[in-house]
Amino acid sequence: MTDDGRVREFVTAFEELRAEVEKVIVGHREIINHVLIGMFAGGHVLLEGVPGLGKTLLVKTLSESLELSFSRVQFTPDLMPADIIGTNIIVEDADGRKHFQFQQGPLFAHVVLADEINRATPKTQSALLEGMQEASVTVGGVSRPLPAPFFVLATQNPIEMEGTYPLPEAQLDRFLWKLRVRYPAIEELNAIIDRTTQSRPISVDRVMSGAKVLAFRELIREVPVAAHVRDLASGIVMATHPQWADAPEVTRRFVRYGASPRGAQALILGAKVRALAEGRYNVSADDLKALVAPALRHRVILNFEGEAEGIDIDTLLGQIVDSVESATTQAREPFVR
């Protein structure tokens, strides 16, 4: 199949999958797009929002649209690592001999919903995050691979922080995106009421297999990125570091730590998926800029002044992007006497 044919195939598959999710989920088009982009990019997604906005339903509906196994883990303070990754149990065979047998936990699924991840203790969080990073878990000194594709969607509540264990920065960095789920507009709220309070069950069709997801991930890796687009991604990430010589003033004033190289990887991979989803076999600067907030909002840490002044991280990232673009434009302009 030609490159154009493969792009058209991906566009069709992406739109079909999004249409199935939108049968159930009202609004949140941008959130749905970003979740799908995260899945095809091979990353994991953190959804943040107050209760009742459909975060769990979104993940469940996505899993129903895929020919993949799904499991949900409700994180609580008493949840132990063995509860999610599994454990060795003693079993007896037909001859009466006893031996250890590994009993898989809910983490051994293609799509895993980690509900309210910040309610579990750091020990349990780290067990999940090992699986996210390595695509395998270690039990009893034996490394066991997780099924492929493996995709974690975690949720957390930003307002109810009592009795929770916020994810450390190093663990947040494992998520490709951090998405903020907003409250619906009144028209969307009316549609939610109509759709959920009447006896009209909505069926979701399975439109994509795991093998197809893996094939699309390989296709995404082949999408070319021009040097100036790659340089823009690197420039944006470096501009989040106050120690960088060319850091903008807003960064020096309000930022304590900037994004890691994973931030640049997230930008490029996400931009490749976004370009393909729009039918383009090349990445543009607009693809990058559209994904700066979800890729970097959890990777940039404000300093005391930024926290005290209530600086919105998304607004700050927008100013950083504008500063980098302005500096790039000035560097390209020819010198005129």
Short overview:
The chain is α/β, with parallel strands linked by helices.
Task: Describe the protein in words.
- By secondary structure, this protein is an alpha/beta fold.
- It has two domains: 221 residues, Rossmann fold (3-Layer(aba) Sandwich), CATH 3.40.50.300; 115 residues, Orthogonal Bundle (Helicase, Ruva Protein, domain 3).
- 47% of the residues lie in helices and 16% in strands.
- The protein has 15 helices and 13 strands.
- The strands form five sheets. A five-stranded parallel sheet has the order 3-6-9-1-10. It has a two-stranded parallel sheet with strand order 2-11. Strands 4-5 form a two-stranded antiparallel ribbon.
- Helix 9 crosses helix 11.
- The longest helix has 20 residues.
- The protein is globular.
- The mean pLDDT is 87.
Annotate the secondary structure layout.
Elements: H1 3-22, H2 29-41, E1 45-48, H3 55-64, E2 66-67, E3 70-74, H4 81-85, E4 86-92, E5 98-104, E6 111-115, H5 122-134, E7 136-139, E8 142-145, E9 151-156, H6 169-172, E10 177-180, H7 186-196, E11 208-209, H8 210-221, H9 227-238, H10 249-254, E12 255-257, H11 261-277, H12 285-290, H13 292-296, E13 301-302, H14 304-308, H15 313-332
Helix pairs in contact: 1-2, 2-11, 9-11
